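B., you asked whether I could sanity-check this one before it goes into the benchmark set. Here's the sequence:
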Amino acid sequence: MMRREDSTTTANSKSAAAGSTADSSIATKTAAKTTATGKAASTSDSKSASGTNKSASKTGTATGKSKTKTGTGTDSDTKTGTSTGTGSSNSSTTYTGVTGGVSLLTPASTTTTYFKIGDYVTFVWNYTSLSVTPSGIDVMATCSINSEMYTLTRNMSVDPTGHFTWDTGKYQSTATVPLLVETYTLVIMDAKLDISATASAGHLSVYDTWTFGMYTPQAYTPLNGMYNSIYLKLASTNHRQHSNAQPVAELSPKRNGTSST
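And here's what the prediction gave me:
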């Protein structure tokens, strides 16, 4: 009886060992499959995140995620980071048609205006057919008599309606080349261009078609002084005329039947 029980115990031990080995093998295979599945999921998600990141290079920011398997086979999401990118292109816009221009509002471009040196002079204008806004505007005046370019302002900001007031008195008091009593041409142009440059379509061209005059007031002369001056000139003229005239008797013929010889 004792031997049979030992035999039974031995058989049960082998069966338990075999079952344990089988369970261990099953667990190992299950873990291997879980690991393989986790790697595949991680690889797939990494590729998806990579593709998302490439696509996001033009639209802003993309966030990638990868799934990782735990030992028990439970899925957990883990953020792998954030990638940012900005898209850029080297494309340029080409404009066709006319160049931009200036329409003078004040003073009216249809009139010729004369300004007194020492007064404030205001210029107001609009822009026409302007597709590319300049970074700054120069306002100048040119005089053909002395071939001088008078700079009124440089690199002024660009507004839909341009406006500039010129203090001619202050300018004259500090000018290296003083203003002359002459005719001038108003110039409004892109601060980055030369006055002889040709603007492209849509860009501001040089405006130099309106002329104006400048004068210096004369000293005041009282009316009485003016009348006295005129009277003295007339009296002097009459005196010269009378002093050069011959006597009337010498010019008339002799009477009593005799003629002058």
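One thing to flag: Residues 2-56 form the longest helix (55 residues). Otherwise nothing jumped out at me.
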